[in-house]
Every structure is written in C-alpha cells, then in structure tokens.
Design a protein that fits this description.
The structure holds 2 protein chains of 2 kinds.
Chain A (H helix, E strand, L loop, with lengths): L4 H18 L7 H10 L4 E2 L4 E3 L3 E4 L3 E6 L3 E8 L6 E7 L3 E10 L5 E9 L4 E12 L5
Chain B lengths: L5 E5 L3 E2 L4 E9 L20 E8 L2 E8 L8 E7 L4 E9 L4 E10 L1
Parallel strand pairs in B: 2-8
Antiparallel strand pairs in B: 1-3, 3-6, 4-5, 4-7, 7-8
The chains are: A alpha+beta, B mainly beta.
C-alpha cells in the first residue's frame, strides 16, 4: 500500500482513538501486552532464570524447550512470532523438587521465545532465546 | 472424547525419602491448534488439552496451563520430592470436558 499524506493522517487518528479507548500503548506487540498483563508493568530482572532452547529448529512443530528458575512459583512461556503468544504456564506445588520443566512447543517462524518467572517474593525474572525455524509449525 | 488418547508416564518404582526424582509424561493427543485449515479452507476447530496436573498423595507437584502452541502429544519433564511411599496421580483436562488419569505407585525406603 502506498502511503499518502491523507492515509497517514487517517491511520494516525484511528490509532490514537484506539489507544485512548484501550489505555494501552498502541504499538506494543502482543507478547509485550501479555507480559505486562501478567506482571502488572513491574520491572523484570534477569539472571535468575535459565531458558534452554535450540538455536536452530528444523521442525517448528516440535521444538524442545526447558526452563529453570530457582525460587520461582510460576513460569510462563511466550513465543512472540506465533498467532497467539502464550505457550504454557507452569505452577509449582509444594512437592516440586526443582523449579524446572521441559516440554515441546510449536513455533510458526523464526522468533524469540520468552520466559517470565514469578518469584516467591513477588518479583519477576525474564529470559529470552532466539530460535531459527526452518519449517513453521502452524500448518497454515 | 478425542480418539486414541493414551497417557504414558515414567516414574521410578523405588526412591529413598526426600530424594529428587525425575518424572516424564507424555499423552498421545492431536492438539488441534484451531489455526489450521482443511482442504476446503474451513478452519479446523481447536481441540487441545488445556491443563495438566501432577499430585502426590493429594499434594500438588506441578500444574501446567497449556495453550495451542504446545506440540502434538504433549510431553513434560519435571522433578518431584517424595517424602513417603504413595502414589502419583496425573490428570489431563481436554477442551471437550473429558479428563484422562494415570496413577503410578512409588515405594520409598
């Protein structure tokens, strides 16, 4: 689409109206929105969480992911290039030995996988990993 | 109920008290994401397992919320501590309302 001055103005007006109604940043990605909703906009630390993902995934239908965050009560995984960013949430119970889990996920294309952990003191930690995907996993 | 759903769980048969054990679970399930289309271009409706829990003698070990981005035949690996002999109960919750259960006993010496 060619952007003329008139179209830009139209888009701009629409966006501001939308942002005004929703009260959200207009250009943030779905993943950022989802994370903000989870953390309530709190600052996130780094380092206390480890996300292990392959650098290159040949098949996006099953990408092995493991996450480890000592002292976490819950870990949520997001994939920022998927149609729906949320992937899974792990909540750890009293008999959980380590705050770690592994699973296999679908990735539609090359993208970042983000893990956000809620710690026992209520703070948040995050880690992300870029995964190159050769064949996408959404069967579109 | 989705057809051909079969849970498979790997739990050690024996452990010493307070030991950390690794548990692997897998359930055969299509995990239809709701994003795919059939040959006529109609969207295939979503049909996934949306929750998985593992409990030991009634106490929770892990509670997982699954989204469509979890692969076909959802697999989980995690660790648990076993304070006494008892049984693990694994439960999968399907979108269609059915649940699948698997029970594994463990002897603690």
């Amino acid at each position: 689409m060619e952007l003329t001055r008139r179209k830009i103005l139209a888009i701009g007006t629409g966006t501001f109206a939308f942002a005004g109604v929703m009260g959200l940043p207009a250009f943030a990605s779905l993943t950022d929105d989802a994370i903000a909703e989870m953390t309530g906009g709190a600052e996130m630390g780094e380092g206390a969480i480890t996300l292990t993902a392959p650098e290159i995934a040949e098949n996006g239908n099953t990408v092995p992911i493991s996450v480890d965050a000592p002292g976490a009560v819950a870990i949520t995984l997001f994939a920022d290039g998927n149609p729906v960013p949320a992937v899974a949430t792990f909540k750890f119970g009293p008999l959980s030995a380590s705050r770690s889990a592994s699973t296999r996920i679908r990735l539609a294309k090359t993208q970042n996988v983000v893990a956000v952990a809620q710690m026992e003191d209520g703070s948040f930690q995050h880690a992300s990993a870029n995964v190159k995907v050769t064949i996408g996993g959404c069967g579109g | 109920m989705a057809s051909g759903v079969k849970p498979r769980v790997k739990v050690p048969k024996k452990a010493s008290a307070g030991e950390t054990i690794t548990i692997k679970t897998l359930i055969s399930h299509k995990m239809e994401s709701g994003q795919r289309k059939d040959d006529d271009g109609n969207v295939i409706p979503r049909s996934i397992i949306n929750r998985f829990t593992a409990d030991f003698n009634g106490q929770n070990v892990i509670d997982v919320t699954l989204e469509p981005a979890i692969s076909t035949n959802p697999y989980f690996q995690f660790e648990a501590v076993v304070p006494e002999s008892g049984e693990f109960k694994f439960t999968w919750y399907d979108d269609d309302g059915s649940t699948y259960e698997e029970v594994k006993k463990i002897a603690v010496s």
